[in-house]
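## retry 2 of 3
previous attempt timed out at serialization; input unchanged, resubmitting
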Amino acid sequence: MQDVDFEFFTELVSAPEIINPIPQKKWSILKIKNKFKDFTTYPKNPLNKKMVIWGIYEQDEKELIGLCGLLTNDDNQSEIAYRLRKKYWKIGYGTEVTKHMIYYCFNTLKLNILTADVNIENTASVKILTKFFKPIKEFYNAHDKCTDRRYLLHKNDWKNLNQIK
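## retry succeeded, writing output
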């Protein structure tokens, strides 16, 4: 992401229709600025940071349409995350981003296990994650005050799915 992405980044972290299903509290403008600065400083190796966020763009376009990231969950496992601006919902981008994040994590970063957590009421993300991952547990997320479901995918199972060539 670059400075020109700040307006769309602000939408992605503050628009109620985007943050409520996650759920995430609305950030102050100071926190948005600080997070944007942090998220535009990328380490050489994403595994050296607890949270790395990248911008999502349509091929050959410059407008930020979403965010994806690699996080470390409370079990110290790598976790993928994503969100899209509302006008890009329901047209397949969530599935494509998920597939490519899995591919990147297994083939470039050489991870063997990948997770994803989702608020069980976020039905769109539940539908996407169920295509690739297996649910392994549900738990109360005290920070976000919701029930989350954790999904898990082993690299060997991904190879068997043969999702991306």
